[in-house]
Amino acid sequence: MLDEVRRHLRLKHYSLRTEKAYVGWIVRYIRFHRMAHPREMAGEQVAAFLSMLAVKGKVSASTQNQALSALLFLYREVLGTQLPWMEGVVRAKRPKRLPTVLSPQEVQRLLLAMDGRPWLLASLLYGTGMRLMECLRLRVQDVDLSRMEILIRDGKGGKDRRTVLPRSLLESLRKEMERARLLHQHDLLAGQGAVWLPYALKRKYPNADREFGWQYVFPAERISVDPRDGVQRRHHVDDAVLSRAIKNARIQVGIDKPVSAHTLRHSFATHLLEAGHDIRTVQELLGHKDVATTQIYTHVLGRGAGGLLSPLDRLPGALSPPAE
Prior knowledge:
By secondary structure, the protein is mostly helical. It folds into two domains: about 1-90, Tyrosine recombinase, N-terminal domain (DNA polymerase, domain 1, Orthogonal Bundle); about 95-305, hpI Integrase, Chain A (Orthogonal Bundle). It is about 50% helix and about 5% strand. Helix 7 (about 115-130) packs across helix 11. It comes from Stenotrophomonas pictorum JCM 9942.
């Protein structure tokens, strides 16, 4: 059954990360009900599993909703079950939280504490507003050094978009691409050099997977086995490399806020709005479907709560402590 789950997920072009997550939730669901087959269970068992996650596991609303999505995919797409209870399942309400945003000075301190490839990756995230995996999955042909643009293919929601390429990163990015070229030439001489291609491009263009234009801008150090088909290829660099570097840099420079790769994307959007750029332009650069998603950054601008003068500060002598 799990093989069928994987087959259906790949048929609908779900990412490998989503595949691993969905399979993991389905396994936990079956084990929770003592190895009962999903066909023998229904809404009551699904509700019990989700309640366990929330009450005993204390998972977040987004995690609980991911588990529900995995189970609904299992019943609808794999088992072909259409039961009345499936329409009545209520998703957990996600709390509205403001994103963590760094000041320009904090971003500068963070980047100065990094070097090498992690520095370039972090600089690209802040300078372009890309998501982490969009940056790691960049192909050579999607970086236009002459037009100073980056084409992001198959982003969230399956959409393509363009974003700005920071001029200050032009030379560093050119050197990184040259490094990728030399590594690819070495792989070709060793009988390797193939890269994973999405959809049916491998059948349509049989030799495209060995062309340099399709190679990753940030290739991994080692060739590994692709879990989707068992073929040895050079994948892109692991996202954990950047996550560790950002954590170490944050600690080193003494930033007490929680900082992740996505924080740099939040900071990109906020700083553009602070600079007076149109919110529709920022929406397009971020790849948001609805401008309402982009509007969350207006709540963390300096002219919001941090730009007001508290009425307490208007009182005469309010800033002076009382005499002891």
